[in-house]
Design goal:
The two termini are 17 Å apart. Helix 1 packs across helix 5 and helix 2 (26-33) crosses helix 3. This protein has helices spanning 2-21, 26-33, 37-44, 52-61, 66-77. It is an all-alpha fold and 78 residues long.
């Protein structure tokens, strides 16, 4: 279980990095996904995990393969 939490921590950092790289605010990204800005904030600050369906939408919006988002996270935080 703690390993899963650790990986989501890495993912939160990666999501924020991709969002900023695409010049999106939390609110703008949230509107594209159909969630609240607070939800995006919670994902990025590791307080909650996005559902797989949200991750698939995120990878499409950010034009990054889902696997690449996770690889980027591991590069910075392993």
């Amino acid at each position: 279980m703690s390993n899963a939490i650790y990986k989501m921590t890495e993912l939160g950092y990666a999501l924020k990095e991709y969002r900023i790289r695409h010049n999106l605010t939390q609110l703008a990204l949230a509107r594209k996904i159909g969630v609240s800005a607070n939800t995006v904030h919670l994902w990025e600050t590791k307080r909650c995990r996005p559902a797989m369906s949200s991750l698939v939408i995120l990878s499409d919006i950010l034009d990054e393969p889902l696997v690449q988002i996770i690889v980027m996270a591991k590069k910075y935080y392993d």
